[in-house]
Amino acid sequence: AVRLRCPCGLVTAFVPWDGQRSGNPVRFRSVPAFAAATDLAVDVPGHGKVVVDIGYGGTFYAFLSAEQLGLDVCSAETRDLVRAASAVTEAVKKQFKLHHPESEDLAFLYGTILTDGKDAFSEEPTTNICVFADEQVDRSPTGSGVTARIALQYHKGLIQLGQTRTFQSSTTGSLFTGKAVKATKIGNYNAVIVEVSGEAFYTGTATFTVEEGDPLKHGFLLK
């Protein structure tokens, strides 16, 4: 078990270990995830009125099928998906106020995830693309995004506890699995703890050094 202190709270990851090196798949258990809004009508410039769901899985995302925007998430040009998703993000920010029951610092929309619309439980993978922050695109189905999608599907009664779904990135084809493992509460929201699993590989290491003479070695605060 590897415990990570994230901005959203404590996340526990699990890494296979044979005594010499780590392996795959790795998995993590999320902070409480919940549906913040469902079937929310939003006016999106250039696209008209669309219906979105907003889910929280460590951060907030808007979800809708790419088909509502006249696109196929599996075959459309990535730049077209990015433009459309970004337009949705900006529209939701202007038309809907988010609330997090424990920290208003977390009450912001991180991005929009366009899906193939296949939210009902199936053994087949469901595809999505996550456009977040400053029009960045995730190479994976997105850990917090899968968490939020599972929370929304559970809220709508489309999946049950312990049912595993497979999620595929439309950009790279990489796969995550996700399942709701425990029902819980956060504030007034019914929530779930979600377990997400996938492959992980080392890409680098970093070393940080604190020198005794550094006047800011303990950090600083801006007032």
TrEMBL record:
What is the species listed in this Swiss-Prot or TrEMBL entry?
Notiomystis cincta
Record family assignment: Belongs to the proline racemase family.
Enzyme category, top tier: lyase
Pfam families reported in the protein's UniProt record: Pro_racemase
- Read off the SUPFAM superfamilies from this record: Diaminopimelate epimerase-like
Keyword Lyase carried by entry: yes
One function term, GO molecular function aspect: trans-L-3-hydroxyproline dehydratase activity
Q: Which UniProt keywords apply?
A: Lyase
Q: Which reaction does it catalyse?
A: trans-3-hydroxy-L-proline = 1-pyrroline-2-carboxylate + H2O
* Record EC number: 4.2.1.77
- Report quaternary structure and partners: Homodimer.
Please give the name of this protein.
trans-L-3-hydroxyproline dehydratase
